[in-house]
Design brief:
By secondary structure, this protein is α+β, with helices and mostly antiparallel strands. It is built from 6 helices and 28 strands. It has a domain of 132 residues. 34% of the residues are buried.
């Protein structure tokens, strides 16, 4: 009887959610219109896959160093989902451990935020976390709920909002939020938008990037892993299956900043409607379709420093990152995700700090590569030998040379 009393409301809740978001009920009308996008000054990043060879990553590196993170009872990281760095802290988001762990720049443990529960100051499930660099506050996003903590794990404030289930949240000034949802999903308005701005109480204030009302076949698509990058005062947004990179400024101005040109390997403009809305296609069929046509597409996590722009993309079933020099306008690209025969650790960069590209790697992968004689770089070999037996991730900082 008790199980029935518990299961019944849960089933009802999911049914209600499905009826609201998945039904064909009339779209509701929002009073807030979609603001225009400034496209007047967009720069073009050309990635020539026809004549430009794949670069050796080591040929592009000016400086590289690694940082191991102290492993204690409260600092163990089970599965690292993100890293955020300011001048004093390295914040590691552990999605499986459901916590945020803080370290200093020497890798020493400082604090952790773990507040799972049902109370006002707790989260039932940490969808993801982000950081307010100006206020020095950590924001943890729960389902329908936003909770702020200080850098000692102390609860500060929280609120609930109907705007959640996002693909990514970015913090703007005065605790405003940039809420991004691919293809405007869950936006049941007459004119759905992918980018919504919420004020410090969770109320919708402005909207950008109009999108299709057609139902997207999510079972057949591959979404960007990190569509929003950067931080206040400049956020970069890269929608899936797009060749466009948008910028959201601290003054809530939304503009097209870069267009990526893959030449003859560009995904056609009609692709989203012709393929992504076809519910009969499977995930594997769409992947083969893209590979057979030799199309290249952005996969999120576009990052920018003062000197370069890092553009991840997928091409012929393999992952790459292109590096565009702002000084020369030249582009180089490398394959990511493994250690090649030259002993290059080709890791997918997901963050920047000053002029460095930041990534992380599992220590067991490093040890295994060394045992199999796949590592040739002397500095990498020495670092692996100095590693202890812990399993906390290793952070890598890379500065690229001018080219």
């Amino acid at each position: 009887m008790r199980k029935q009393l518990i299961i019944g409301p849960i089933i009802a809740l999911f049914c209600a959610w499905g009826i609201y978001f998945l039904s064909d009920e009339p779209y509701r009308k929002l009073e807030i219109p979609i603001s225009p996008t400034d496209t007047s000054q967009a720069a073009t990043i050309s990635i020539d896959l026809e004549s430009l060879p794949i670069s050796n990553f080591s040929d592009l590196v000016e400086e590289i160093f690694y940082l191991s993170l102290e492993e204690m009872e409260h600092s163990k990281v089970i599965r690292m989902a993100d890293v955020i760095i300011d001048d004093d802290h390295i914040l590691v988001v552990d999605d499986e451990g459901q916590k945020v762990v803080g370290f200093d720049h020497q890798g020493k443990y400082l604090f952790d935020i773990y507040r799972k529960g049902k109370g006002d100051e707790q989260y039932r499930y940490m969808e993801y976390a982000t950081y307010d660099h100006e206020r020095k506050e950590v924001l943890i996003v729960d389902t329908w709920k936003y909770i702020w903590f200080d850098l000692k794990g102390k609860y500060l404030r929280s609120y609930k909002s109907e705007y959640n289930f996002s693909d990514k949240i970015a913090l703007l000034e005065n605790s405003n939020l940039a809420y991004f949802r691919e293809f405007g999903a869950i936006d049941r308005s007459l004119s759905p938008a992918s980018v919504n701005i919420l004020d410090s109480t969770g109320q919708l204030t402005s909207r950008f990037l109009p999108t299709t009302k057609d139902k997207i076949s999510y079972a057949a698509t591959l979404m960007n892993g990190k569509p929003i990058t950067g931080r206040y005062p400049s956020i970069l947004i890269t929608p899936s299956y797009s060749d466009k990179i948008y910028q959201l400024s601290s003054t809530k101005e939304f503009r097209l900043k870069y267009k990526v040109d893959f030449g003859p390997h560009q995904i056609p403009r009609h692709y989203r409607h012709a393929v992504l809305t076809n519910t009969e296609l499977t995930f594997g069929e769409v992947r083969r379709f893209e590979k057979d046509n030799s199309w290249a597409r952005l996969v999120g996590s576009v990052m920018e420093t003062d000197r370069l722009i890092c553009v991840p993309f997928f091409y012929e079933g393999r992952a790459f990152q292109a590096y565009y020099s702002k000084q020369t306008g030249l582009t180089r690209y490398v394959e990511t995700g493994s250690i090649n025969q030259q002993g290059e650790l080709r890791v997918y960069h997901q963050e920047t700090y000053n002029d460095y590209l930041v990534s992380w790697v599992k220590p067991e992968d490093l040890r295994k590569a060394l045992e199999n004689n796949k590592v040739k770089d002397p500095e990498t070999i020495e670092f692996i030998k100095r590693l202890d037996n812990g399993n906390n991730p290793v952070i890598r900082f890379v500065k690229l040379r001018d080219f």
